[in-house]
Structures are given as C-alpha cells and as structure tokens.
Amino acid sequence: MHRPRRAPAGRPHPRWLAAPALLALAVVLSGCWPARILGLRPERAAGPVAVSLAVPASAFETGPGQSPPATLRVSLVKDARLMVQERALQAPEGDEAVATFVFDQVYEGRWEVAGELLDAEGDAVYAGATRLYVTAGETATVRLTLAARPALLRTQIDLSGYDRQALVTAAGVHLKGPSTAYLKASRPGRDLVWSFDRERQPGTYDLRLVLYQDGGAIEYSREYTSVVLLPGKTTALRWRPATGGAIVIGEIDWVPAAPGDVTCQVLPSEAALRVAWSPPPDPDVAGYRVYLRPPEGSLRLAEEVTAGASQVTLTDPTLPWQAGGAVYVGVTAVDLAGQESLHAPGWCEIPGPSGPASVVERGAG
C-alpha cells in the first residue's frame, strides 16, 4: 500500500506554503496593497473643504476696556486628526464679516467643524460648530454664523468675621437683565470660603447676593448692583459680609477696572515703543501688564510694572520697523489679589522707511 510522504520534522509541508505564495503573487500582479486584497478600504484624500465663517457686527461693539476681536480660527476634527487655520479678522461690510477658509487635502468621512472668534487676549468670545461629510472627488462647503459664547460668573463667598456664619447653609446670586435667574450653591461642610461658577447669557445685569439659612430662609441679602457679563469671559465676584451691630454690610471685591487713555509713541531710531496710560480709580491696584501683538504674530506679554508707573518703553527689534505696520498694544491692571482687568487697547502705527519719525495712537482698538 502506498503511503503519503511525510515532510521532515521541523520543516513545513509544501502544501502550507501554497497559500502565502499565492497571496504574494496576487499582490505583485495586481499592484495592490494587502489591505485591498483583504477587502479593507484605506482612506483617501478628498479635498478641498471650504468653511465660511460669518461674524455678526455686534461682535465688533466693544465697551470700555474690553479687548477687541482679533483672530478667526477654524478647526476640523476626525478621530485623532486635527486641522487648524487662523487669520486676522477684517472689519465687517454691512451686518457681518465673512471669511472663507480652504483646506486642500481632507480625508473622506464625517468631520467635526468648529469656528471661533478670538479676542486680543486669545479667548474665544464667539463660536459655532457643525458636522460635515467629505466625499472623494467633491468640494465640501459649509457656512457657520458665529454666536456669542456664554459668560461665566464666578462667585466667591467669604464668611470670615461674620458672627452668624453658623446659620448660613447656602449662598445665591439673583440676576435681572437679558434673562432672570436665581443661582444657588450649598455651603460645603462648614467652610468659611467657597466658590461656584455659573454660565449666563452675556449682557448687563442687576445683581444681588444672598445668604440662606437651613430650609431656604434668607439670612441676609445686599442691594442690587449693576454688572456686565461679557461673551466668553469670566467675571469674578468676591463677597465678604461683615458685622456692624445690627447692620450687615456686604462688599464686592470686583476685578479692577482697566487703565484708560492708552497712547503709543513710536521711536523707530531706537526700535522702541513708548506706551502710556491713565491709572484706574481702584485703590488696590498692585501693577500693570503690557501686551503686544505684531501684525504677523501672536499676543505676548511684553512688560510688567509696579502700580506707581504710568508708562513704559518697550525695545523690540523683531517688530516690522522697515516695512511698517500696526502693532496692537493692550494694558491691564492687576490688583493685590492677583485679579487682572480687561485690556485697555491701543494701536501703534509703525511708519515705513519714508514715513514720519513717530506716531501717537489713542486706543479705541
């Protein structure tokens, strides 16, 4: 009887070599990657994608000391991929400003699209988001109208020195304005100091702070005070009730007001800018910070000075001294608690080679 021939020990039988050999031959003959032979479809570039951002004219209406809008940013996100583009914001023509961003190579699939308007401090103050499906060989387009981001109200309650603090179980904020709200936060344990954050629609509000006893009875409330909540910004309140006989006096420690009357004198021969400002009325200002943003650069801290200063000379050879251009200058006040005001904005117009020796710009942004 004929018996099949066995392969020597430790060596594979020829029949087991057949499948890998045939697979390799198919790859060579087809010019395909193994993923295609196995039926897996790799991703393919399928751009371009065009994203238009529409910024309403209301975004340009900045108040005193408020940082002006400066930069538009678009982000495309899919899985672990991130594509980002930024550009300087242009003034609106009519009711809105529109800018279009084009991404040339974008993989097929569903992408998350986010648009943001950043102010000169780098905070996103207007935003919008959507989804976009990219198909090979087609141009995908989407338009986003940006809306004001919620404002964050950060409230800190400090019961140090309040002789009835044992009765207090919660604190609250009453707001009347673009929307009416009663925001309440329980006191954690017996902490003398605690804080809570709440997001609200931006706008001007009448605000009242309240202390509560167990069961919801009002222990103490102060009079209404006006406060402005800015889109995408944090407004910090610190309230320290204190005793005085039968009268309880509440006090709000506000973020310091921004400096005023920012001026900028350009000294091209020294490659320097002389920035001056008027001190704010706050008595607890500890110093000032001066920020710069060149025409083709990002915002950066240029100098910190003490409270007694009202001007500073900034030497920076990297600014566009030959070609000229507008340099953004922002001055902020910092109080003893480390709280920083909004920017007091200004612009320094650096002259070109044939321009005047110096320029003075007052800062309305």
Helix content, binned percent: under 10%
Number of DSSP E strands: 26
Q: In CATH, what is the class of the largest domain?
A: Mainly Beta
What's the order of the H and E elements?
HHEEEEEEEEEEEEEEEEEEEEEEEEEE
Work out the count of structural domains.
Answer: 3
Low-confidence parts: 25-40, 243-252, 355-365
Could you describe the largest sheet, including whether it forms a barrel?
5 strands, antiparallel
- For the record, what is the CATH homologous superfamily label of the largest domain? Immunoglobulins
Q: The CATH topology of the largest domain is what?
A: Immunoglobulin-like
Helical segment tally?
2
**What proportion of the residues form beta strands (DSSP E)?**
over 45%
Protein name: Fibronectin type III domain-containing protein
Organism: Geochorda subterranea
Domain Fibronectin type-III: 258-353
